[in-house]
Amino acid sequence: MKAKEQIYSLKAYKPGKPIEEVKRELGLTSVTKLASNENPFGCAPAVKEAVLDELEQVSIYPDGYAAEVRTKLSEYLAVKPEQILFGNGSDEVIEMFCRTFLSSESNTVMATPTFPQYKHNSVIEGAKIVEVPLLDDGKHDLDKMLQAINEDTKIVWLCTPNNPTGRYITEEELVSFMEQVPSHVLVGCDEAYREYVVANDYPDTIALQRQYPNLVIFRTFSKAFGLASLRIGYGVAHEDLMKVVEPVREPFNTSRVSQRAAITALDHLDFIETCRERNREGMLLYENFCKQHQLDYYPSQGNFILIDFKTSQGDEVFHYLLTKGYIVRSGNALGFPTCVRITVGSKEQNEGIIHLLSDWLKRKGIHPKTEAASE
Ligand SMILES: *Cc1c(COP(=O)(O)O)cnc(C)c1O
After folding, report:
1. Ligand 1 atom index nearest CA of 231
2. From the CA of 235, how far away is ligand 1's center (Å)?
3. CATH 3.40.640.10 residue ranges in the chain?
4. Residues 6 or more apart from 44 whose CB is under 8 A from it?
């Protein structure tokens, strides 16, 4: 039995260590996971009630077209209902676009390092992958990405804020990019962290989409909305484009529970606002910590921060924090071997990590600037 050639180059997704396993192995009673950019504040309380209520109907198939949440979301975004495609997480929306547009005759352009699912799904379709290294500041090299486009290019992927650097593409940069991209090329803008963004020059991509019919926006309820385990995300594009992709969608790809949760989450947007503010407060704590210890970091508009420990390996910092009960993400697997990526948590969690990291640096002979000055 032989599978498609390209499948053999893939690795199965390796999830982070489960909390229970870490507890058992290290004999810890409390373990905090800040490795997958989940919302440390959970979801809006009303969502839980709605989910419990919806459980009454688990034996009935969901509405595959997700009409109710579609109407709600289309009003929230001010787009036509037909412009939305729901997926089992935005991961699946990305997959559906790859299935629809990519083949061995085409290529697709993306940054590196970036979110791995663009490449993963493109490889499965047999497309040629063109990876353009990020600039030193962690931003997309949009000029080089433009140069990489040719007549066989089907999709260009932009991750903004980029996972794992947290850097974003400004409105001016995106407009200039869209002006130069040939109209036969789809531009996929992954905005999984858009609800966390506070930068004033972050683009209103929904408005830009009206101007550029080749722009596709991917968003999710997994991050700021706090619904990661329920699996619901969506794409927004021109209705003619969505008409092409829609038949690729599995009939019941989002569940009754996830749809109901998304509807309820959209009724409680004050929760998102609070999370955004608290995320910013946490981000400031980390930024100040980095500045004090003269550590480089990538200024992030997401709910995570990539910190460079320069002389130490990310794995070393990761293991140290693990033994203390915090699971973060080593930069090693993310293309940044001397970094760790930390999800911004609750105030208590952030202070806990910063305290541990300060201790660790002290043992390495790295003292905060303020202390050094008073010595
Ligand atoms: C988390 C994440 C997603 C996917 O999330 P889903 O849970 O599948 O909706 C997509 N893109 C980026 C950049 C992410 O970090």
Report:
1. 7
2. 12
3. 45-265
4. 226, 264, 265, 268, 271
